[in-house]
Design brief:
Structural class: alpha+beta
Radius of gyration: 24 Å
Number of domains: 3
CATH class of the largest domain: Alpha Beta
Number of helices: 16
Strand content: 15-25%
Helix content: 25-40%
Shape: globular
Number of strands: 24
Largest sheet: 8 strands, antiparallel
Length: 620
C-alpha cells in the first residue's frame, strides 16, 4: 500500500519532479497530517480536563457494558495480548489506547526521528524532573522521555531495532525465584514470534520462520558498515548475530521491517485480529482510573475519557494493564496501588501498599561522540539519487535506513563475573534525513548530513535507580519522572561509560577506520576547563550530553513474597498485582533486572507469556 502511495505521488508530480522534490512533497504532506492530528489532540478536552471537570462528570458516567477482559494500552505488549486472547471466540475483549493508528509516514524507516520527537503527537510529551547528573545541556536540565502514544506503542515510533538481550539476563530473573522466566523457558517465545528473513550473520537454530513478527536485515548499508565491522575484528571483537549465542561483538542491525517498511506490533498482531467480532478496539481514549473494590480488593473495570465524555467499562474476568512503564505506574498509583505515605497526602486511598515507581531502570545514552569525515569521498550523495527511486519501486535504498549502521555489544572491566555479559551497547549511526523535517532537503544539505557519524553509548545495566510518582490526584496531570542517572555511590555507571569511550577510541584508531580521517566534533564549552580527552573531560561530557531514548523500565517489577514482604516487587511471577485480585500488569514495567538490548522483543514475549498464563487459568 505504501509503495502504491508513492507511485501515485510520482504520477501526480510527473517526471518533472526530482527525487528531492518528491521527498519534499511527501514531507510537506506528512507535516500537514501531523499538524492536523496535533491540533485535534490539543483541541480535544479528553486530554485537558481539569480535576473539577473530572469530578463533576463522574456523576454522568456512560457505561459501555461488560467484557471478559479489558486491556489498558494498545502498545507493543497490549497488541499481542489483545490478539492472543481474542483467539478464544467466547471471550469478549476490550482494548483501550490513548493514541491513534499508525500513519502512512510512520511506515518509512528514515522518518522515525520525527515520530518520537518532542513535538510529535505520537508521544506523550513526557519530561523528567530537573536532573543532577544527566541531560545537563538541555533546557532546565530536564530529559525528554519519548513515550509512545499510538497503536503498536513504541514499535510504531522507534528505530525498529530488534534485540532480545542475552540468556544471562533472563537467568538472572530466574535467580530471583521467578520460575518460568529463565532463558530456556523464554527461548521458544523469542523464536516463535519471529518471521526472520535475515541475510546477515545468523545462528540459524535461534531463529524462526512463520511467526507474526517480520524481521529483516537492513536494506541499505553505508560505506562505514563494513569498515566498522572490520575495525572491530581488528581490536578483537567478533562479527556476531546480534540475537545469537555470542552476545559480545559487532553486527548488522536486525529490524522490525517488511519489504523496507516498518512492521510494528500492531502490524504483526492487530492487523489480523482487528476484525474479530469479540475484539473491540477503542483509540484516542485516556484511562483515568482502575475500578477496584474497596472491600473485595478486586479489579472490576476502568474509567476512561473520550471526546469529553467519561465512560466506564466492567471486566468479569480481569483487567490487564499494558500501558508501559510510565503510564502503567501512573495508573496504579492513581488507583490506590503504591506507597501509602505518598498516596495519603494526595487523598488517594491506598488499597495495596507496594513500591510502585521505586525501581526505575533507565538505559541512559551518551550521545556526545560525534565525528565528521575529512575525506567526504567515502560518503557520496549520488547514492541518494539512484536509490530513492529504488525505495519507491523495491523497498530499498537510504529511505529504508534507520540510520543505525552497526550495533556493538562490549564488556568493560566493570562487568562483574566471568560470563560473556555486555554492559554497554554501541550504536554507530550515519546522519539521518528525518531529524529535522522543517528544513527542506536539498542536494547540498544531504551531502553535509551524510558526513556526520555519531556513536551512541547505551548503559545496559545501570546501578542507579530512578523514581516515578504523582504530584496531584488529577489523572490528566503528568507524573514526576526522576531518571536519577549516575547517582550510584561507587560511580560505577560513569566508570563503565568512560571505559566504553576508551574502547570506542581504540576502534576508531584501527587501520580500517583511520583512512576516513574522522574528526571529533563534540567539544563542549561547559567542559572547557578540562583537558580534552581526559577522564575529567569525558565525565563532564557524559553528564552534559547524556539523554533518554525512552528505554525506561521496572516501575512495577516482578518478584515473590519473602518472609511476609513483597520487597520492591509489585507483581508476582504470573504478573498478578500483589494484594489485588483480577489485575495483571504486562509490559516493560514488570522487568525485574535490566536486559542487554532494546525492549521491543521482550515486551512482545511478555505479551505472549501473559496471554498463555491467562488462558491456562481461565480455560481449566
Amino acid at each position: 500500500m505504501l509503495k502504491l502511495f508513492f507511485i501515485l505521488a510520482i504520477g501526480q508530480i510527473s517526471v518533472r519532479g526530482s527525487p528531492f522534490e518528491l521527498l519534499e512533497n511527501y514531507i510537506e504532506g506528512f507535516e500537514k497530517n501531523v499538524d492536523h492530528l496535533r491540533s485535534y489532540l490539543k483541541s480535544g478536552s479528553w486530554q485537558q480536563k481539569t480535576l473539577q471537570n473530572y469530578i463533576q462528570e463522574e456523576a454522568h458516567i456512560k457505561d459501555i457494558g461488560e467484557y471478559d477482559f479489558i486491556i489498558v494500552g494498545g502498545g507493543t505488549t497490549g497488541s499481542v495480548i489483545a490478539a492472543r486472547l481474542s483467539e478464544i471466540p467466547e471471550w469478549k475483549i476490550l482494548l483501550l489506547e490513548a493514541g491513534e493508528s499508525e500513519s502512512v509516514a510512520s511506515k518509512v524507516p528514515v522518518m522515525h526521528s520525527c515520530l518520537k520527537g518532542e513535538s510529535s503527537p505520537l508521544t506523550w510529551g513526557y519530561y523528567s524532573v530537573p536532573q543532577n547528573n544527566s541531560c545537563l545541556n538541555l533546557e532546565d536540565r530536564r530529559c525528554f522521555v519519548p513515550t509512545a502514544k499510538a497503536l503498536g506503542g513504541t514499535s510504531a515510533i522507534n528505530d525498529m531495532l530488534y534485540t532480545r538481550g542475552t540468556a544471562r539476563d533472563y537467568d538472572l530473573w530466574a535467580d530471583n525465584n521467578l520460575k518460568g522466566w529463565c532463558s530456556i523457558s523464554l527461548e521458544p517465545y523469542f523464536k516463535n514470534i519471529e518471521d526472520a528473513h535475515l541475510d546477515t550473520a545468523m545462528d540459524i537454530g535461534l531463529h524462526h520462520y512463520g511467526g507474526p513478527v517480520h524481521l529483516e536485515s537492513s536494506r541499505y548499508y553505508s560505506d562505514i558498515t563494513n569498515r566498522f565491522l572490520a575495525g572491530a575484528k581488528e581490536i578483537g571483537l567478533k562479527e556476531i548475530d546480534v540475537n545469537g549465542k555470542n552476545p559480545l561483538g559487532f553486527g548488522c542491525p536486525q529490524l522490525m521491517t517488511k519489504n523496507g517498511e516498518r512492521y510494528s506490533a500492531a502490524s504483526a498482531y492487530l492487523k489480523s485480529a482487528k476484525d474479530r467480532k469479540n475484539l473491540e478496539i477503542r483509540s484516542l481514549v485516556q484511562v483515568t482510573k482502575l475500578i477496584i473494590g474497596e472491600h473485595t480488593k478486586e479489579a472490576q473495570g476502568v474509567h476512561f475519557f473520550h471526546e469529553g465524555q467519561l465512560f466506564t467499562a466492567s471486566a468479569s474476568k480481569e483487567v490487564i494493564l499494558a500501558a508501559g512503564t510510565i503510564n502503567s505506574g501512573k495508573l496504579l498509583l492513581l488507583s490506590g496501588i503504591g506507597p501509602h505515605d505518598e498516596l495519603k497526602p494526595l487523598n488517594i486511598e491506598c488499597l495495596s501498599d507496594l513500591k510502585v515507581g521505586k525501581n526505575l531502570i533507565h538505559h541512559v545514552v551518551f550521545a556526545g561522540l560525534k565525528y565528521v569525515y575529512v575525506d567526504a569521498n567515502h560518503l557520496k550523495t549520488s547514492g541518494y539519487y539512484s536509490k530513492e527511486i529504488d525505495y519507491l519501486r523495491n523497498g530499498r535504498g537510504p529511505l529504508t535506513s534507520t540510520g543505525v549502521d552497526v550495533i556493538g555489544f562490549i564488556k568493560t572491566e566493570f562487568s562483574k563475573g566471568r560470563h560473556l555479559y555486555p554492559d554497554v551497547e554501541l550504536l554507530v549511526t550515519s546522519s539521518q534525513i528525518g531529524d529535522n523535517l522543517s528544513n527542506k532537503i536539498s542536494e547540498e544539505n544531504i551531502h553535509d548530513l551524510k558526513k556526520q557519524i555519531t556513536i551512541n553509548l547505551i548503559l545496559l545495566h545501570p546501578k542507579s535507580r530512578g523514581t516515578l510518582s504523582l504530584h496531584t490526584n488529577n489523572p490528566f496531570d503528568y507524573p514526576l519522572i526522576n531518571l536519577n542517572d549516575f547517582s550510584d555511590k561507587e560511580d560505577y555507571d560513569i566508570k563503565t561509560l568512560l571505559s566504553a569511550i576508551r574502547t570506542t577510541q581504540k576502534l576508531l584508531q584501527s587501520q580500517h577506520l583511520q583512512p576516513l580521517g574522522l574528526s571529533y566534533q563534540g567539544i563542549i564549552p561547559r567542559c572547557s576547563e578540562y583537558d580534552v580527552y581526559s577522564d575529567d573531560y569525558w565525565t563532564c561530557a557524559i553528564k552534559q550530553l547524556s539523554i533518554s531514548i525512552g528505554e525506561v523500565t521496572s516501575s512495577a517489577p516482578m518478584g515473590e513474597e519473602k518472609e511476609g514482604s513483597f520487597g520492591s516487587s509489585v507483581v508476582d511471577l504470573k504478573l498478578r498485582v500483589h494484594g489485588i485480585d483480577k489485575l495483571r500488569v504486562a509490559d516493560d514495567s514488570v522487568i525485574p533486572v535490566s536486559i542487554s538490548g532494546h525492549l521491543a522483543a521482550i515486551k512482545m514475549v511478555i505479551g505472549e507469556k501473559c496471554a498463555d498464563l491467562i488462558k491456562e487459568e481461565w480455560t481449566k
